[in-house]
Design goal:
Strand 5 and strand 6 form a beta hairpin. Helix content is 41%, strand content 13%. By secondary structure, the protein is of the alpha/beta class. Strands 1-3-2-4-6-5 form a six-stranded mixed β-sheet, with helices on both faces. The chain binds uracil and iron/sulfur cluster. The site of iron/sulfur cluster has 14 residues, from helix 4.
């Protein structure tokens, strides 16, 4: 089948590739600007995301919106996806088998978007995209190049919401500034228009 957004959306909506299909209300493929140079990848839908069929719309999503705004980005300027497209019950981490079943969809999104930068939001994204044994507290903020894409692992916004000492928030802010710097270096901020069209 030809790889198009429409085919991908339909395939995910109908998917029964792992047990997470049983209890989902909606699949959550992702959303944003398909021409963006920057792809964000989280873990999987939570309760609100499952109810609405949209990524990062609950408390973590509201924080993500503020994080984007802090470096002059909006959701419409980036693309936001997850490792799994259906909600793991009780927001548990997706199993290795669930992630493996779902990863071809993220790969398809990657092929359609061809982002220059990929931001892994949290350990789950980083372990499936970078290395299974990644230590997010040690390796966050360190850029890794993989097949021409620059990858930045950072904390998941949910971890920042649970952060009591403020340490992770400070580190996440460093990572956001690093992302802004890299985007400036690579001339990736749009010039006059508010968004990318190509
Ligand atoms: N957490 C995630 O990892 N993804 C979402 O879409 C929402 C919350
Ligand atoms: Fe299919 Fe992914 Fe949903 Fe599993 S999580 S049913 S693989 S779309």
């Amino acid at each position: 089948m030809e790889l198009t957004w429409e085919n991908l959306e339909n395939a995910v909506r109908a998917c029964r590739g792992c047990g997470l299909c049983e209890r989902r209300l909606h699949t959550v493929l992702g959303e944003g600007n398909p021409h963006t140079p920057v792809l964000f990848v989280g873990e999987g839908p939570g309760r609100q995301e499952d109810e609405q069929g949209r990524p990062f719309v609950g408390p973590a999503g509201q924080l993500l919106d503020r994080m984007l705004a802090a470096i002059s980005l909006t959701r419409e300027m980036v693309y936001i996806a997850n490792i799994v497209k259906c909600r793991p019950p009780g927001n548990r981490e997706p199993t290795a088998a669930e992630a493996a079943a779902c990863l071809p969809y993220l790969r398809a999104q990657f092929v359609l978007i061809r982002p220059k930068i990929l931001v892994c939001l949290g350990r789950t994204a980083a372990m499936h995209i970078l290395r299974p044994d990644i230590r997010i507290t040690r390796e966050r903020g360190i850029w890794v190049e993989k097949k021409g894409t620059l990858i930045l692992p950072t904390y998941h916004p949910s971890a920042l919401l649970r952060d009591e000492t403020g340490q992770k928030k400070r580190e996440a802010w460093q990572d956001l500034k690093s992302l802004r710097e890299k985007m400036r270096e690579m001339d990736l901020y749009p010039k006059e228009e508010k968004t990318w069209t190509q």
